[in-house]
Amino acid sequence: MKSSKEPLVTVVTPVYNGEAYLGECIESVLAQTYDHWQYVIVNNQSTDRSLEIALQYAQKDPRIRVITNEHFVDVMRSQNIAFQQVSTDSTYCKMVHADDWLFPDCLRLMVELAERHPSVGIAGAYRLDDTVVTPSGLPYPCTSMPGRELCRTILLGGPGVFGSNSSILFRSEHVRNRERFLDESDFHGDTGVCYEILQNCDFGFVHQVLTYTRRHPGAQTEFAESVNTYLAGQLRHLQRYGPIYLSQEEYASRHRWLLAEYYRFLGRSVLEPQGEEIWRYHEAALASLGHRVSAGRLLVMLLTYWRRALMSPVQAGRLAGRVLRRLVSPGSVATARRAR
After folding, report:
1. Within a 10 A sphere around the Cβ of 92, how many other Cβ atoms?
2. Is-contact 129 213, C-beta < 8 A?
3. Is the pTM value of this prediction over 0.70?
4. Most buried of 8, 17, 107, 179 (most Cβ within 10 A)?
5. What is the 3 state secondary structure string of 1-32?
6. Cβ distance 85 to 12 under 8 Å?
7. 3-214 — its CATH code?
8. Count of C-beta atoms within a 10 Å radius of residue 313
9. What is the residue extent of each domain of the chain?
């Protein structure tokens, strides 16, 4: 098949000070066995050689275009600017983060799957996540599933299949139909947008490893894992999309379980070395979702997870005092908001 007859794929990469990995990322796009693509690299006011590297590749291949943001913006806004570069004549959109890369057959296999299943709005695949293959994926040999069925399963605690924006392909119409593709207030907006899109289309999956996600100091994934932003993301998405995909009884049951899990996590982590950072993040996250941190409930969880440290009334009193000081400290969200 000649490339002129193949669906056009717009590949986008937002980059900020990514000179260490950007070349490898661009080379992986150039190495694709599917060659009917255009590539837009969005430079977010980098202060290293990222712009220079991108321009060097653009001079060699007319399919590559480089733009620079007028002002420095945060990560989510930079990604949205990249998604806004999707051309009007492209059929599919593929993001690859500047520190990630694509295996050679990535575009070809994802496009082939989406072309076989016109109802598929998002196509995913396995990724090499540092040294581990993720996500869980659809049960083999299933290659597509109704979006509502999949989202319902995930919200009820089923395995995740989305990965990250680097590991999925979007049908471009869904990108162009949204003024800002990602919710910039959602740290896990890449998952949230999947819940949005899959209300009206199917999810496809290629049972091969097609992308690589790099783990390194300073990456968003490092922060996400250190403070467990995923838990707040789960609660946020359940509250926003649970009423769409679940029955009232299912939503209520899952909501109770997830809040209990939240307190189990806080009970385990509140006294860890990075506890202050974890506390600040999750106190604010819970407040944004309409919840205050309950001192009594947290103390119950602390008693559960720190039983050995609470063998005497003195130790118990010290522990309770430390928690209460956090809960009533100046500026504490818990002192300013009431639970809904």
Report:
1. 23
2. yes
3. yes
4. 107
5. CCHHHCCCEEEEEEECCCHHHHHHHHHHHHCC
6. yes
7. 3.90.550.10
8. 8
9. 3-214, 223-336
